[in-house]
Amino acid sequence: MFQYTVWNFVPKNLFEQFRRVANFYFLIIFLVQLMIDTPTSPVTSGLPLFFVITVTAIKQGYEDWLRHISDNEVNGAPVYVVRSGGLVTTRSKNIRVGDIVRVAKNEIFPADLVLLSSDRLDGSCHVTTASLDGETNLKTHVAVPETAVLQTVANLDTLIAVVECQQPEADLYRFMGRMTITQQMEEIVRPLGPESLLLRGARLKNTKEIFGVAVYTGMETKMALNYKSKSQKRSAVEKSMNTFLIIYLIILISEAIISTILKYTWQAEEKWDEPWYNQKTEHQRNSSKILKFISDFLAFLVLYNFIIPISLYVTVELQKFLGSFFIGWDLDLYHEESDEKAQVNTSDLNEELGQVEYVFTDKTGTLTENEMQFRECSINGTKYQEINGRLVSEGPTPDSSEGNLSYLTSLSHVNNLSHLAAGSSFRTSPENGTELIKEHDLFFKAVSLCHTVQISSVQTDSIGDGPWQSSFAPAQLEYYASSPDEKALVEAAARFGIVFVGNSGEIMEVKTLGKLERYKLLHILEFDPDRRRMSVIVQAPSGEKLLFVKGAESSILPECIGGEIEKTKIHVDEFALKGLRTLCMAYRQFTSKEYEEINRRLFEARTALQQREEKLAGVFQFIEKDLILLGATAVEDKLQDKVRETIEALRMAGIKVWVLTGDKHETAVSVSLSCGHFHRTMNILELLNQKSDSECAEKLGQLARRIREDHVIQHGLVVDGTSLSLALREHEKLFMDVCRHCSAVMCCRMAPLQKAKVIRLIKISPEKPITLAIGDGANDVSMIQEAHVGIGIMGKEGRQAARNSDYAIARFKFLSKLLFVHGHFYYIRIATLVQYFFYKNVCFITPQFLYQFYCLFSQQTLYDSVYLTLYNICFTSLPILIYSLLEQHIDPHVLQNKPTLYRDISKNRQLSMKTFLYWTTLGFSHAFIFFFGSYFLIGKDTSLLGNGQMFGNWTFGTLVFTVMVITVTAKMALETHFWTWINHLVTWGSILFYFVFSLFYGGILWPFLSSQNMYFVFIQLLSSGSAWFAIILMVFTCLFLDIVKKVFDRQFHPTNIEKAQLTETNSSIKCLDSMCCFSEGETACASVGRMLERVIGRCSPSHVSRSWSASDPFYTNDRSILTLSTMDSSTC
């Protein structure tokens, strides 16, 4: 979602920019310079400010323009609307409530529609809501009977109906309304529920076309209501910058006040107040002293204003904008199968990738591939697994004493289900092969009938000749399932010889060895999260009424009165330990009298207008009892590549991982176990199905006590959406206390806005941790926008998450490199950039302040105005910019293979107050050396020229400035670990440019300059040997103390990163850097060189010997664009 429009861009962008302390401050300084007489021109403040504002506005406008383009693709999509008896093409944004819209197969619904009709006679259609709730299953929606027959545009144009519905709400699973249809002067009222509503963002599947009437459009659709409004995200580094700016603002004001007070103290003596060479005018003598004091204070404020580095912001903006391209260029983040590379939608948060403490991830499509595969099953107490398309027993059978026997007995004599239903063999062990086949036949027929699977095409001529032979090709049938498990199970049954062919109306067709059997579908008892099971009632070819039930073992086993219950329960636990998704199968046979009673109760409950859900739940419970257990199935939800390794790496980096999913409890826990989010040894705590605040509080108290009593075992927490709502409403503190003591948290059955609320809760907790949310569907957009950093997966669920995220990647495994390498580098670079900018500006302005003590606080500037303007723009800007783009203080491969190094930069450690004070103190100490070193050299009436001529104030200021430019540039060189030819060019080129520029600027009389104070000054300064010696001495003195500190810290108090640099140096770096290289043979300075390498931890890309093997985890090939220089395996 975009942030700006054409009309609000200028005011809104200016407001956002002037929220920054430095921008607002320079605006005030610029206005002051316009209003009063100041030592410097208004251009010195106005021009940099205009440049910064303009560059930032262009960058942010460009990024928002890209989001506009993406949104227009959706809002401008063509749709067909029924008007005046025909179909009219319009854009999706033009749909109005009451429009009848036609949607074709595989198209996305452009608004929330009430289904009127489809190409099927019963008015049903199938949709997938993967982009809304993360579920890739197919959901069946039905139209009311009166409109289902209106399958043409002409018929729909004659429809007279009124739809009444509730006010728009965000809940995806709730909808209440009614349709009043007028037919032949008679009004027919039909209730409308969620089964009639087609949600915007969902996709039509397995249906040629549908017609629906728009009830919610635009921002009133459920998808839009689940979006959070996009807010401007600000990184922790930017907040630290504002804090530092305020501190420097206090220093600035203090210096201005001190200078003003000392000026008036000094001028208390008459000889200094009005010396003979500077007589006051009458107006000056009679002017108000208070106004004069304020004017002088403002003048000093302007004189010292360069201590606030406005160029810091433009450098940071450039660094973020240009640095973001490295993510897109990184070939390790490129997914070849989908041809997707990483995308950066918001470059303002690059450094935030290095500060993440919590990762909130979606499950479906983010951790998994949305591909279910049948693995094992338990049939009447015997466990089987599929191997190469065959069902293989894991234990001895009646036919063979050997295990792992493939059963190939023919099923040709088994054609009728009715005589199997009452067989005693379903409750006892089989006594012969025929009974064994009967059990398997009934089990797989239950699998083939108890579902809501649909088929788009049927080609079943090549069914195998045995029940366990895999000669059936699943690709021949295109199944669309109501859950991913159902599709995998029906396909498995087809491989084993019992093929679901499809349904026509109420008839379900199953082929067994080529013989077609037809079952009449009487009722479907839909799945719901309370029952955690679904059932079908069918009429067998022989006329018997049978109930087939499928669901979680916790909901099926308690209702069973027969079958191998204990053995099956053991098998289910074994399946779960393998991380497989389990379902139990059971059946029940009804007498004619029982079925009549059931049919009557179902009709009454389904037509009730009041308390329909409660009545249906009661009838379902009455039906699904006294079951005979058939067995259990186990399917595997295929994880994405390297998910387990990535989650483990995140843990090692000190990052807590939460899984937030709309999926069922059992499914989510199973995937959490298989992906390593939950460990087998972890004590899983559950906060599920809480009905009231008091019940929720009591349960939370119990969980808190369990955690306190056991300090050894790791705990994992599972909480569902309903319980979470209660916990967040009244018991936030207690809930957060439980969560903080859990190693992993998994939230299931979560609505999109609930995901955002959870992240919000963590964000505002006392620790104020940095959060990251990652997901792939529209249901994840809210949490992506709520988190400090939002990452979209470019998966199978559309591009809503990727469009609304800050970053987009193709696979979850790429998250490790994005955080551990890019995040680490970006944070170190920008942290050094910020500290260095304050340091060099303290070096710049402090001599100006000290100079006032020697010029009677007359507001005389120490530097020429050109030097004032170009210091931050030209002379010292490029080395730090290139450093902030290319620096690699440690090898990327080391960072990725040692996730614990991520801990060293967490909690904004590099921008702590201690580090800030060190850089500030260093700046002041260097400034004192610049000023007093130059003062002692030429301040005592000493001639340093051969002709006896004295140096003046401009020469003094130029000497200070020259030492300063060389020192701050050399300081940047000391901080650089990764040297490329670009670093060499800008570092030494900046110093060379300063000398060349000064020679030209001071060596020529420029006609367009009104005054040229610097004429011949620089040339005269450089003609003195003493000046050259002083420059070298002062630069060495400044940097020597810094080098000593670095050596001491690295030798006696090394950080983990410095230890890793040392390890890397000892193993692969053969030279100090590209400026100091030693040959392979021993030389006189070889031992010194090795010591310096070990202490400084310096590396040069041209001298690195990489020894990475294919067995290295994550990425075996470093093709990152971050490495700009070629890697040479040879030593120096």
TrEMBL record:
Gene3D superfamilies per UniProt: Calcium-transporting ATPase, cytoplasmic domain N, Calcium-transporting ATPase, cytoplasmic transduction domain A, HAD superfamily/HAD-like
Q: Where is the P-type ATPase N-terminal domain?
A: 3-45
Q: What is its EC number?
A: 7.6.2.1
Q: How does it sit in the membrane?
A: Multi-pass membrane protein
Where is the protein localized? Early endosome; Endoplasmic reticulum; Golgi apparatus, trans-Golgi network; Membrane
Report TM segments.
21-36, 243-266, 297-316, 818-839, 916-938, 950-973, 985-1009, 1015-1041
Q: Name one Pfam family in it.
A: E1-E2_ATPase
Reaction catalysed by this enzyme = a 1,2-diacyl-sn-glycero-3-phosphoethanolamine(out) + ATP + H2O = a 1,2-diacyl-sn-glycero-3-phosphoethanolamine(in) + ADP + phosphate + H(+); ATP + H2O + phospholipidSide 1 = ADP + phosphate + phospholipidSide 2; a 1,2-diacyl-sn-glycero-3-phospho-L-serine(out) + ATP + H2O = a 1,2-diacyl-sn-glycero-3-phospho-L-serine(in) + ADP + phosphate + H(+)
Q: Where is the active site?
A: 362
Q: Where is the signal peptide?
A: none
Asked if the Swiss-Prot or TrEMBL record annotates the protein with the keyword NADP, the reply is: no
Any idea what this protein is called? Phospholipid-transporting ATPase
